[in-house]
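Researcher: Going back to the complex we discussed earlier. I've cleaned up the inputs and rechecked each line, so this should be the final set. Can you rerun the prediction on the complete assembly and write out the structure?
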Amino acid sequence: ILNVEQSPQSLHVQEGDSTNFTCSFPSSNFYALHWYRWETAKSPEALFVMTLNGDEKKKGRISATLNTKEGYSYLYIKGSQPEDSATYLCAFTAGNMLTFGGGTRLMVKP
Amino acid sequence: DAGVIQSPRHEVTEMGQEVTLRCKPISGHNSLFWYRQTMMRGLELLIYFNNNVPIDDSGMPEDRFSAKMPNASFSTLKIQPSEPRDSAVYFCASSLRTSTIYEQYFGPGTRLTVT
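Model: Rerun complete. Updated structure for the full complex:
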């Protein structure tokens, strides 16, 4: 069983605030790190897949970085909007194993 | 493409009954995943198939659970007999896996309630 941890578990911010959260994963036998966005009553939606140490990905106001040597990834949201409210999941793959973290639930208040 | 299709969307059944959940992956995808989401355990991978072959079923809770993928366009997850603790949302996802790098596309889920 691979231990993938996300922090914080939940986060409340005001519209316009920038925010970030963390995904920690085992640094050995790393293959890929995924980020998903999961809105309530919908299905998880892929945001990024990262494979190389130092990778940075960006999609609009959302970006992510990867450090495979120390086993963490950050997800940043710049200028949060109410529509960013969702649970953000990371998933770690090593070999044939895929493990999701518990998610960070983000609530953006207008 | 219609995306990943799951049926039924909601299932209510009594304890002891057999439950079959169905999934149609995105055409052309070669990997299929079954997940269970509960409040206590979050999103858990139950089993996944690559080219219709089960690769990792270590997440399947117990012998009451079984999954099949008879062809590239269809998979089932069966629970027999069902128990109240099986109540959860079951997601199916598919991906085009050419290496270990693959984005998964999730279906809408099946909400199962066992009374």
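Model: Worth noting: The first strand of chain A starts at residue 5 and ends at 7.
Researcher: Good, that matches what I expected from the previous run.
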